[in-house]
Design a protein that fits this description.
The protein has 197 residues and is an alpha+beta fold. Helix content is 52%, strand content 22%. The chain is globular, with a radius of gyration of 18 Å.
Length: 197
Amino acid sequence: MQHIDFLNYIQRELQINGAEVEEMRQFVPYKPKFLAKNDLFLSVGKVCTSVAFIESGAVLYFRENDDADKLVCDVLFEGSWVTYIQSLVTKMPSDMNIQALEDTRIIEIEQDVLNTFFEKFPKAERLSRKLTEASFIQIAQRAADLQFLTAEERYTKVLKEEPRLIERVPQYYLASLLGIAPQSLSRIRKELSKQSS
């Protein structure tokens, strides 16, 4: 499992020098947090009050249906930011669960600290805007894929663009994320395996 250091990430993404990184580190009382596999970062009914950077591990965004089946909406790995923007912005209780898929180390920053941080470091706010735009693009692309691509095309696209989903996500979660029945996903994997052998 890869480890991505938070401060190194910030320095690289914002293109700032070591002194600026140190100033940010002193100013932002961020805290490392460890989530054991299956621990919840956010649960339905709670208000999201923070954002977190994944240094290592993975998290699963999901809702549950009436049968308590997990309907997977997203999976994020190290190097990604975790929050539930609808709840964070509106202060309304979340309708989404965010759960550690693996043992996960995050750097968590409370929203009030983040707002002050953005005022003091405008470069960081530009990064936030860029990440938000990328997230919306990803959501729109996933919706388009579900509408226009076949199940096999969706799977092969993931295989090419985000192999970590294939390598680290249990098949029943991956099937839910791709909008494919688990049995169909199993068949697709077998057929593709035969073609490549």
